């Protein structure tokens, strides 16, 4: 997934029977890292997992490359992880007390080692990976979506709070994309990746669900509950920025949610202006929604250099600032002498928006009014988004009292938390997913899915107690 920009990539696959494994690591984007001969080598297998790493816990380097592969008493396992463990330090001490050395700084290695440790009490020391996964899920409630591969089986796992996305797709015949026939199963953080490999979106892995994928099809093996009847806590920042707009979460397309955010923002924060535009590209749906609700024309004012990556998910401030300078050019003929409403999806650190406003005003904009299609980010994220300290957030700095003056805008208004939740939850669906499937058969006996979202970065209300 290029939208979840990777610095480190690893593909790992096995041949039929799980007796031979091969892997291919690299650093950079997938299409620029792997040569055709490497891909051809991996095509000999019938089962595989891959990972593109967005660094949160641990440094960016090949030593933190995933999937993590370890030899256990019962054979080799490979684990790929999206998320960040809220009690990683406690789990690290548990692993170290068992005499297991850790070779990386990634919390994802902890998951692999915990699975390889002795099984839960009163259970035999057998390769019962479902019992081991269940034990892991009770030891750490969030945040993770996992793929665990053992021999000729893959387990797809989502934490009980469903904080990180995970979805299932089915491979269909290339010549008949609408065919009901299933030729295989795939798993991804986002559904947008399925079309490029000839797969169709099937459903989400539910919070707390353990799904087995094998030559016999897919099957739900267990569902680990949340304590005390807590609601799910899907990361709302996935909708705001992180996900690709054509991905589907909770039965709705991300693009549609972002457009609704723009509608709501126009209701909450109108302004006298001549046109509406966007900071491309993740804010484009919100800008279109704002323009429609406000009755203003949508006009492009910035040209994006598509060869520069997404600035927010660069690992340090210097790279983010350099990315902004290289990323945008002004389309001055479209806005000279006019008042612009510029829609951004979020202002987290303030590295991006100030130089953009400067570019627009130097190119002839009469006024630039910033409207942000999400609330101010005020608190760190400890569950998989790289927002590690309160001090680096613009909403917590003295300059926030006069943010418009600080960034050079004529005005700045954010979407409210209630407005964001309304836009997200308006289209969330209580689905009855096909949760137990074998050979493509559907099962309609599943219970409806609860809807809930983590807004900790906006409100400081974390879904679980943080352990240090």
UniProtKB/TrEMBL annotation:
Mg(2+) binds at residues 282, 344-345. Pathway: Purine metabolism; IMP biosynthesis via de novo pathway; N(1)-(5-phospho-D-ribosyl)glycinamide from 5-phospho-alpha-D-ribose 1-diphosphate: step 1/2. In the C-terminal section; belongs to the purine/pyrimidine phosphoribosyltransferase family. HAMAP family: PurF. Binds 1 Mg(2+) ion per subunit. This is Amidophosphoribosyltransferase. The keyword Iron-sulfur applies. Residues 1-216 form the Glutamine amidotransferase type-2 domain. The lineage of its organism: Eukaryota, Metazoa, Chordata, Craniata, Vertebrata. It comes from the Eukaryota. It holds the Pfam family GATase_6. Its cofactor is Mg(2+); [4Fe-4S] cluster. It is an enzyme of class 2 (transferase). Its EC number is 2.4.2.14. [4Fe-4S] cluster binds at residues 235, 381, 454, 457. It catalyses: 5-phospho-beta-D-ribosylamine + L-glutamate + diphosphate = 5-phospho-alpha-D-ribose 1-diphosphate + L-glutamine + H2O. Keywords: Glutamine amidotransferase, Glycosyltransferase, Iron, Iron-sulfur, Magnesium, Metal-binding, Purine biosynthesis, Transferase. GO terms for biological process: 'de novo' IMP biosynthetic process; purine nucleobase biosynthetic process. The keyword Glycosyltransferase applies. One of its GO terms (molecular function) is metal ion binding.
